[in-house]
Design a protein that fits this description.
Elements lengths: L7 E4 L5 H12 L3 E6 L3 H13 L4 E5 L5 H15 L4 E4 L14 H28 L4 E6 L12 H21 L4 E8 L8 H4 L2 H8 L10 H12 L10 E4 L3 H6 L2
Parallel strand pairs: 1-2, 1-4, 2-3, 4-5, 5-6, 6-7
Helix pairs in contact: 1-8, 3-4, 4-5
């Protein structure tokens, strides 16, 4: 029996990269999974078909996480399909590296809306459902090492992830009375589309590897494995903190 047998999970941004890896692992551990996509319907449908074809349960929902009405609709659709909700993974995010002096208001608004506002209101919708069920639940935010590490030329992204860090700490305290846990997972350098340009450049890749003690780029499965464990009862005493899954990058950065 899987670690999450009988549980119901939502993964935002579940059609690509880290999100897709998380969806597959949750399903493999027995969870019914609702995967949200914004624009990549074909990829989302392919994942859901693979899960159902293997005997699992999956639901595809189109939603823009920057819109609270959409995140509420995502929660409602999940409960209508599977009867309850146990796990929310706030994975959807965007990154638009831009020198600080050139950041536009539209860039600021869009990144904050997806990377910080989205998790806030998705968690609110999930929490209300947890309470309606009698309490209990787990929220996992896919944050970044940049909730703590500065990144020149990426000020908006860092601000959003720093906000996500304090959001998790604050809500973990506030929602504990309802037995709701909130944990961040902070990926380091992971082989996903968002890092494709860097990884396609051998010089940039080698420079990045030099900052990672384990000397490899992470895979979506590395993040997904951490999420599965944190969402399970084996991690029932963990809340309000960040688990960095980064090959030791934070150790290196901390020594500079």
């Amino acid at each position: 029996m899987g670690l999450l047998q009988g549980k119901v999970a939502i993964v935002t941004g579940g059609s690509l990269g880290i999100g897709a890896g998380i969806v597959h692992r949750l399903a493999a551990e027995g969870a019914a999974v609702a995967l949200d996509f914004h624009t990549h319907r074909d990829a989302a449908d392919a994942i859901a078909n693979a899960i159902t074809g293997a005997g699992g349960r999956a639901l595809v929902v189109q939603a823009d996480v920057s819109l609270p009405a959409d995140t509420q609709r995502l929660v409602s659709a999940t409960v209508n399909a599977f009867g309850r909700l146990d796990i929310l993974v706030n994975n959807a995010g965007i990154e638009q590296p831009t020198p600080f002096a050139n950041v536009t208001e539209d860039q600021w608004d869009r990144q904050i809306a997806v990377d910080l506002k989205g998790p806030f209101f998705a968690t609110q919708a999930a929490f209300r459902q947890f309470v309606a069920q009698g309490g209990g639940g787990c929220v996992i935010n896919i944050s970044s090492v940049h909730e703590e590490l500065p990144m020149v030329g990426n000020s908006v992204y860092c601000a959003a992830k720093g906000g996500l860090r304090m959001l998790a700490r604050t809500l973990a305290n506030e929602l504990a009375a309802n037995n709701v846990r909130i944990v961040n997972v902070g990926p380091g350098a992971i082989a996903t589309p968002i890092n494709a340009t860097t990884l396609a450049d051998p010089a940039k890749t080698q420079a990045l590897l030099a900052e990672i003690p384990l000397r490899r780029i992470g895979q979506p499965t590395d993040i997904a494995n951490a999420v599965v464990w944190l969402a399970s009862d084996q991690a029932s005493y963990i809340t309000g903190t960040t688990l960095f899954v980064d090959g030791g990058l934070m150790i290196y950065a901390g020594s500079l």
